[in-house]
Specification:
Helix 5 runs antiparallel to helix 6, helix 8 runs parallel beside helix 9 and helix 9 packs antiparallel against helix 11. The chain has eleven helices and ten strands. It starts with a helix and ends with a strand. Strands 2-1-5-4-3 form a five-stranded antiparallel beta sheet. The chain has a five-stranded mixed beta sheet with strand order 6-7-8-10-9. About 60% of the residues lie in helices and about 15% in strands. The radius of gyration is 56 Å and the shape is rod-shaped. The chain has about 450 residues and is an alpha+beta fold.
Length: about 450
Amino acid sequence: MKLRQKVILLAITPLIIALIAIALAVRYQATVLADQQRASVEAAYLASKEAELRHYVALATQSIDHLYDSGRKDEATLNEAKAILAKLNFGDDGYFFVYDLNGNNLMHPRQPELIGRNLWEMRDASGRPTIQLLTARAKEGGGFQRYLWEKPSAGKIAPKLGYVVMLERWGWMLGTGIYMDDVDAAISKIDTQISGNIHNTMIWIAGIAITGALIIAISGLALNISEYRVADAKLKALAQRVVRSQEDERARLSRDLHDSISQLLVSIKLQIESGIAKLSSHAARPEFARLSFDRAAGQLNDVLGEVRRISHDLRPALLDDLGLAAALDHLTREFSEHSSLSFDFENIGTTDGLSDVGNTVLFRIAQEALTNIKRHAVASHASVRLVGNNQCVQLLVSDNGVGFDVAQIAQHPKRGIGLRNMHERLEAVGGKLLLTSSADGTQVIATLPRS
């Protein structure tokens, strides 16, 4: 996996993890809130239904108060009371029922087939004695009782919340109730709505996560394209600099060969031809020709020195034979001989452990730095120090010249090529270059780790 892909993955992964954690937290909190809301709604709904049942029973008792308070207990009075109660309906499944204390059904408007039957031992599907529980609740002074009973509108057994009271003088248990499946349906509707809200919230979070991941991926792709373009431009510029450096080096060699060696060889040729001519014309006096040959020999020495100089510039033999310190010492002495500046060299520690490439890089940096001092620094003195320790080798080249603006030179497209070359040479072998310059002088510090 490429570095950019790893960066994008590291950017997306925490986002996804964070959104998943948020989604889980939101889902948990929403579930807890839904349970609390469900319990609150159910309690409030049941409280309202219980109050409603009390009102219904109070209304029923008030409708027969004139009969109950009359003190009569004859069959006509009781039948009239039953008829009044039978007509008190609320909704399709809202009705009143009457039982005596022995469990005999005295009035049931929705199930007339139960009238006259003793239901004391009747039990529901869970084995609970329904009429006994209702009678016991009525004897306790009235109250609510949950039980199972057939729902008239559906013809099926459903849970029911009943409210019963005792009419002691008549020995009646009067009651009514509401079927709880309606309550359960209302609560289920609330649960469905809450679940839908949670689901929608999860979809929103998932959408945000996908959108965020896409934005990061697209941004990463755009960054990759931009970086590729910048890298391609830098590569082209580097290739151009390499070609230009090669051409500059060839031009320098051409000038050196033409301006020095070629002219010296022509002069030597002429001196030899002159000596040969003098020998032919003055055979008896060879000393006339000797002067020409001596001049030719001296110029040959100059040619050899020039060839050694060019060879040293291309690849110093001392670097391979005696090492970096000796090569730098020789280089500073050469610059001292060919300029008006004073140079000194100091070697501290050892450079053992550097590769041949590392030695060459540090030598070229010293060569470039001394050349810049000679051409641009307007300095009177320069020093070269080579410091080696267990971790790295440092090359320090400093002068007391006028200095320059490092940032301005670095940004100039046509200047500072030598400085860029120094940076690139060191970066290629894992080193670092530090360049400081002021009106008091310039210092170049090249640090190269040991292999």
